[in-house]
Write a structure and sequence with these properties.
Length: about 300
C-alpha cells in the first residue's frame, strides 16, 4: 500500500447496530468453532521462476501464492475482471492467500521479485478464469491484510464475544465496541509507518494500540472468523488515503455505509475516530457516502 501519511488516520467501519446500540442478553447466536482457512491442495498449480500459484480453490474465491527465490522483496498484483489492479506486499516462503474480490471472470495474477532500487522482475504471470461457487468466498478467508488462524488470539476472543451474542447484529456490535474501547491510536507508529505495512491483528490486541489499518484488520478478522462476509476496502475519503469495512447480513444484504445510533437514523462511523471522540459526532461527519471512493478490496 505504500507509505500512509498521518493525515490518513481515519478508518471507516460500516456496521448495522440494533436500536439504541443496546446489546442483547447473549447466547442465541451460533458460534463458529473453526473459521474457514485457505488451502493449497496442489490440484491446479502454475509455476514460474521461484514462484507458484495454486489455483485449486479459485472457485472458493482465492488462490494461494508462494515465492521461494532470493529476492529481498516480493509484490503480487491482481488484475480483476473489472480492470482493478490490486497490489499485495508479500512475505516469502510459504503459501499465502490472495482473494479474487471482483467475482466471476478473468484474473491476471503477477508475482514480482525485487531486483534493485525500484526495479522488479516478473517471476510468474498467470491468467485464471474464475466461476465462484460462493459469491461471499473472497470475504470469508484470511489474507495478507487480514491475517489470522484458528489458533490466533483474535479468533479465540471472537468466539467468546459470539457466545455472548444474540445474533449477528449483536455480535458485530460487540466486536465494534471491543475494538474501539480497547485499542488506542499509536501516534508513534503513525509518524513512522514502514513502506508496505501489513497489520497483525494479534499484535494489535496484545499491545492495545495500532494505526487505522490495524483497527480495520482486527475487526475484519474477528468478523470473518465468525462466518460474517466482510470487505476491507481501501480508497480515498475526499483526498485522504483511507480504509473502511463493509459487512453482509442475511436480513439486509451488503451494508456499505451505515451504522445505527438512535434507532432512527442510519449513519457511517469511523472506528478510529469513535475510539477517540464522540461516536455521534463521527457518524455525522461520515454520514455522506459521497466522501468515499473505493479502490481496492482485501
Amino acid at each position: 500500500m505504500g507509505r500512509i501519511g498521518r493525515g490518513a488516520v481515519l478508518l471507516a467501519l460500516i456496521l448495522i447496530l440494533v436500536s439504541g446500540c443496546a446489546l442483547g442478553r447473549g447466547g442465541g447466536r451460533k458460534t463458529v468453532d473453526k473459521a474457514e482457512m485457505p488451502e493449497a491442495p496442489g490440484t491446479q498449480v502454475y509455476t514460474g521462476t521461484d514462484a507458484a500459484i495454486d489455483a485449486s480453490n479459485a472457485a472458493k474465491g482465492y488462490v494461494m501464492v508462494r515465492y521461494t527465490g532470493s529476492a529481498d522483496k516480493v509484490q503480487v498484483q491482481v488484475t480483476g475482471p473489472k480492470g482493478t489492479r490490486t497490489p499485495y506486499p508479500f512475505e516469502k516462503g510459504s503459501y499465502h492467500a490472495v482473494p479474487l474480490s471482483e467475482g466471476d471472470g478473468s484474473y491476471t495474477i503477477v508475482v514480482y521479485a525485487h531486483v534493485s532500487g525500484t526495479s522488479y522482475a516478473v517471476a510468474l504471470s498467470q491468467r485464471i478464469d474464475v466461476k465462484l461457487t460462493d459469491e461471499f468466498g473472497p470475504f470469508l478467508y484470511p489474507n495478507q491484510y487480514v491475517a489470522y488462524t484458528n489458533n490466533s488470539a483474535c479468533t479465540a476472543y471472537a468466539k467468546k464475544l459470539s457466545d455472548r451474542s444474540d445474533d449477528d447484529l449483536d455480535y458485530i456490535t460487540r466486536v465494534f465496541n471491543y475494538v474501539t474501547g480497547h485499542i488506542t491510536y499509536d501516534n508513534d507508529l503513525a509518524a513512522h509507518i514502514p513502506v508496505n505495512y501489513l497489520p497483525d491483528p494479534d499484535k494489535t490486541m496484545s499491545s492495545g494500540k495500532g494505526i487505522c489499518l490495524d483497527y480495520a484488520a482486527l475487526m475484519t478478522a474477528m468478523l470473518r472468523a465468525q462466518g460474517i462476509p466482510t470487505k476491507l476496502e481501501v480508497g480515498y475519503n475526499e483526498t485522504v488515503y483511507h480504509a473502511w469495512i463493509s459487512v453482509y447480513l442475511k436480513e439486509k444484504g451488503w451494508v456499505d455505509g451505515i451504522i445505527q445510533f438512535d434507532g432512527k437514523n442510519w449513519t457511517l462511523v469511523d472506528p478510529t475516530l469513535a475510539a477517540e471522540s464522540s461516536k455521534k459526532k463521527a457518524g455525522a461527519y461520515m454520514k455522506d457516502r459521497s466522501h468515499y471512493t473505493a479502490m481496492y478490496q482485501y
